[in-house]
Predict the 3D structure of the following.
Amino acid sequence: MELETQTAGALEQAPAQCGYAFDILTLFPGLFDGLRQESLLGKALQTGVVELATHNFRQWATDRHNTVDDEPFGGGPGMVLKPDVVVRCLREVRQKRPGAKVVLLSPAGRLFKQETAVAWAKLPGLILLCGRYEGFDARVEDEVDEVVSIGDYVLNGGEVAAMVIVEAVGRLLPGVIGNAASLNEESHSTALLEAPHYTRPREFEGRSVPAELLSGNHAEIARWRLRQSLQRTRERRPELLAGLDTRAWSKKDRQWWAEQTGEGPATKARPQRVAPGAPDRGAAAPADEL
Ligand code: JEW
């Protein structure tokens, strides 16, 4: 059984109590080989700060064909992963990982967000169940702590979603990267999109670095970045502006934002409704024209 469970003796030998353990339950453990070699996580895996172990459901099959799936009751396309095989595998892994959260990846799960990653980085580990075909027999859900989706698109299986979670959680773990930047992360993800970044050369194929960034004036740079963030967010992710808090802003920034959004300075009349297609020079450009 140990032969195909890919870990440096993590489960069997008494391991030096490791910082964080990701256990991936999958029919395709080979898909995680690349992730293991990735620079930041790869280094953390080498130093033992993080452990990533894969477990192939097929090793918990009991018949001579190592069957892991069967036809769906009620009919329909595709195959369903058998609950007996999956649950045997899960129970064995879970027993060796006290405190780990058991997560099943599914397009029908709760949405995984940055705040989820921040919360899960505080645990001793995650056990991630990756399905294939039409997914798991529904009774597997009774054995897991959470069912999560990484977004509203359909994948062929949970493995890529699990990799997203390993990367999002992994980079928050102490010893995986210099964590200075990630301290901000929770507020960042729920606030505004980042302003654009530039590096040398100052001019690239006729496009210059914005003068504000070359000014050396920190207040001017900060103002430019805030405004870029706001414009970008309005254009690309307007739903993030719902909870925008402008109370800490300068009067100038507030006034500028009011003009951008068509609220208009307090002295000006609110933009009037006009006939569809009529030119409307007073109102803000629609988000898709910014
Ligand atoms: C995802 C796991 C396992 C997650 C996100 N289940 C299912 C299913 C599949 C295709 C169509 C409909 C349902 C394939 N599939 C998965 C898909 C996770 C599995 C099988 C998944 N998107 N897709 N966010």
Q: What stands out?
A: The radius of gyration is 25 Å.
